What we know:
By secondary structure, the chain is an alpha+beta fold. It has one domain: Alpha-Beta Complex (tt1808, chain A), CATH 3.90.1570. It is about 25% helix and about 25% strand. The strands form 3 sheets. Strands 3-4-5-6-7-8 form a 6-stranded mixed sheet, sandwiched between helices. Helix 3 (about 115-130) links the parallel strand 5 (about 105-115) and strand 6.
Amino acid sequence: MTTQLLRKLFTVEQYHRMHEVGVLTAADRVELIRGEIIQMSPIGSKHAACVMRLIDVFTQKLGQKVITNVQNPIQIANHSLPQPDVCLLRRKDDYYESAHPTPADVYLLVEVADTTIDFDRQTKMPLYAEAGIKELWIVNLNDQCIEVHRQPATDRYAEVSSYDRTQSLSPQAFPEVAIAVAQILGAAN
Length: 189
């Protein structure tokens, strides 16, 4: 006889309440994914540098056209509150003070991956596709490339391409903006 283990899944409201009452604190590096509270990996120096380069590039190239959101939550339905590394959001006067951004607010979502590459591909990418996030970039620090995912389908993206450091790419929402992959990846290893 086998026993099936039951999991207690949390809503976004319950997750926020845990922060309010101190069950979870700012020191807890966690995010809510499909109702489960997931411990986030520590951020290494290569990862952090890549995020800073992304902020710099997006600020230079897009300026006031977007809000560049860094490691802050995006609310996906009532069960997920992931904290992607960088998002390009539509401008909003209150800077999302009234509520976290939702998939409809996202032009581009970027995950920087080294130790988290499998989690980003197998867990977060399907979540983002299901939510209708139009474009996802996974900056693959291990293979020194950017994986571009477009055209969200049920639990995947219909269009996937990869760009190496010799190439340039453009966010789908801003095709006039060319970004050299090398600017994001930094100096060659």
